[in-house]
Amino acid sequence: MTIPNYLTDDDHARISAAVAESERLSSGEIVTVLADRSDGYTDVAMVWGVLVALLALGTMALFPSFYMGLYDSLIADWGHEWTPRMILSLALGVVTIKFAAMMLLQLWQPLKFFLIPSAIRTTRVHDRAMRAFRLGAERRTTGRTGILIYLSMREHRVEILADEAIARKVEPGVWADAIGAMLSELRAGRTAEAMIAGTRKVGAILALHVPRETGDVNELPDRLIEL
Q: 108, exposed or middle or buried, with CB in 10 Å at 0-12, 13-18, 19+?
């Protein structure tokens, strides 16, 4: 499956410049991550497949003559008698076809993501953001001042996670303004501007709570990481 190209080389350069600019007035180290999606959601797709198959089985139990008649008309054989084995085989065939059809339908990504409950998307994005945070920002700086801005495109979700020195001073709700600014740009289809807006908002908050110290050096790369 091809991953969409959300950003140009110029967009990458502008985001890196925004990160460097936002870090000048604080000791914070901003890491930006852009993900196409945060999970494959195969389990959710399979649940939908099973639900559709069970619904078909229930419908067959309510209207068996319809399915039996359809089978007879397809094979043009009206002289046979329905045995328990034939009825069970028909049920198995119907369930298999419905399950396979639902799985194939979900290969169309807009439908697949539409069918994923919002709470599941939010949880999966948070879990993936936490993994990225632990790998790329948490305890990676001398003063524990790393912060991650994580944007997951398919789920339309943003996460901002801060290392302990920042988390002690900044309540999680403070990041809401930065997240709001990013989502506003994303709704307008401006991915690079979303990341730049979030970076600048986060930089202003960091400058307030963890101002730049003498001798502070850039410990984490300013470039955007794409997953």
A: exposed
